Amino acid sequence: MSTSSTPRPKRMPPEQRERAILDAAIALARQNGIAGLTVRTVAAAAGVTPALVAHYRPSMDAFVADVFGAIVEAERVEVVAAGRAIPGLRGRITRIVETLLDGERDDVTLVWVQAWADGARNDELAARVRREMDGWQRDLEAIVAEGVAAGEISAAHAEGAAWLLLATVDGMNAHSLVKWAPEDRAALARRTVAAVLG
Fold first, then answer.
1. How far is Cα 63 from Cα 120, in angstroms, rounded to an integer?
2. d(C-alpha 99, C-alpha 97), whole Å
3. How far is CA 126 from each of CA 90, 96, 138, rounded to the nearest angstrom?
4. How far apart are CA 106 and CA 71, in angstroms?
5. How far is CA 85 from CA 69, 152, 166, 176, 187, in A?
6. Which of 10, 24, 21, 60 is nearest to 39 (CA)?
7. Do the beta carbons of residue 115 and residue 133 sit within 8 Å?
8. Dihedral sign from CA coordinates of 109, 112, 117, 122
């Protein structure tokens, strides 16, 4: 009779097991951030032994980078698609900024803030943070460039718009984690877009 407190994991094909471990880590990170991801915490969340997590993910630095990337890339794809569904440059950018500042994504904000801090000690995470920041920059620049092409904004005025928007969103969301932010984030989003796009 087994006396182990860890239940025996159900047999799965390797690809399915690896995906289950990743999904458990993603769920854990969305609840508590990425700072607490360890072999043991992921194993407990996945209902497997730490040895099994280590077998599938021998480098925790790389695994944390993958978890971070999965969370923030999914958010970017979703938010940018929602913005693109709105007509016009100002409408698209306003929808994106409002969505990012609506207070419903504090779990992702925590993941971002911890990744910026932990990336100083985890080169693989730092590389993934840069890659995801480049993705946001690229997507916003593409939307602004479409606005320039449509005559909605001048090229001179559009220069640096994506940087300013991202800096504002990142700063305000980071502030919100310690409850230092305006209560009406939608109004802030509209003022930000008006100031940046003119």
1. 16
2. 5
3. 32, 25, 18
4. 12
5. 24, 17, 20, 27, 21
6. 60
7. no
8. positive
Q: Are residues 125 and 65 in contact, defined by beta-carbon separation less than 8 angstroms?
A: yes
CA distance 47 to 5: 11
The string of pLDDT tens digits covering residues 26-75 is 999 999 999 999 999 999 999 999 999 999 999 999 999 999 999 999 99
CA distance 158 to 24: 41
CA nearest neighbour of 37 among 3, 71, 4: 71
Q: Which two tokens stand for residue 164?
A: 């300013």
- Which amino acid appears at position 96 of this protein? I
Specify whether the CB–CB gap between 67 and 22 falls below 8 A: yes
On whether the CB atoms of residues 45 and 27 are closer than 8 A, the answer is: yes
Task: Give the global pTM.
Answer: 0.90
